[in-house]
Amino acid sequence: MTHEYFMTQALREARKAFEEDEVPVGAVVVVQEKIIARGYNMTERLKDPTAHAEMIALTSAFHHLGAKYLTEATIYITLEPCLMCAGALFWSKVKRVVYGAEDEKNGFRKTTGPQWPFHPKTELIRGVLKEECALLMKEFFLKKR
After folding, report:
1. Nearest 5°: phi and psi at 117?
2. At residue 105, what are phi and psi to the nearest 5 degrees?
3. Helix (H, G, I), strand (E, B), or coil: what is residue 101?
4. Rounded CA separation 112/69 (Å)
5. Please, which residues have CB within 8 angstroms of residue 4's CB and are 6 or more apart in sequence?
6. pTM, full prediction
7. What's the order of all strands across the beta sheet hosting 123-126?
8. Which residues pair with residue 111 across a beta bridge?
9. Which residues contact 142 (CB under 8 A, 6 or more apart)?
10. What is the set of active-site residues?
């Protein structure tokens, strides 16, 4: 299995959000090459500004494993995490964060700059299927105009 394969799965989740008129962000959590949790933005549906794809997927992963740390997990996210989600990823001690498109407006890097927002042992991989991830966001916001 490749990073591209799992990001494609995260894109499937993002398309669910798109279909529900949510900002199209999706996430999957992977342990030992197996998806253990999925999530997509549900902020409108749940009337909850914290119901981001990452938060939904992380909560599902914690429940699945019966643990509060994800030291052997990789999370694939279609969009650069916001500061709130970066904080949740820090506390989860996730092994690896892989994201697709950059988020210059709301991504963690806007606030943290060069500071590392994740756990010291967390690895970061950026730009996996970034064009596909960015295109879905562009389509969504063009539809809104």
Report:
1. -90, -10
2. -80, -45
3. strand
4. 23
5. 128, 129
6. 0.96
7. 34-40, 26-31, 73-79, 96-101, 123-126
8. none
9. none
10. 54
Single-letter code of the amino acid located at 87: G
Tokens of 111: 């606030």
C-alpha span between 40 and 58 (Å, rounded) = 11
Token pair listed for 44: 């409108």
Helix (H, G, I), strand (E, B) or coil at 64: helix
- Residue 26 CB partners (closer than 8 Å, separation 6+): 10, 11, 12, 13, 14, 15, 16, 17, 38, 39, 40, 41, 53, 77, 78
User: What are the pLDDT digits (tens) for 86-126?
Assistant: 999 999 999 999 999 999 999 999 999 889 999 999 999 99
How far apart (Å, rounded) are the C-alpha atoms in residues 52 and 73?
18
Structure tokens at 127: 């730009």
- Token pair of 124 as six digits: 């970061």
Q: From CA 23, how far away is CA 136, in angstroms rounded?
A: 9
Q: How much is the pLDDT for 108?
A: 94
Contact 11, 20 (CB under 8 A): no
Question: Can you tell me the mean pLDDT for 13-20?
Answer: 98
Give strand pairing partners of 74: 30, 96
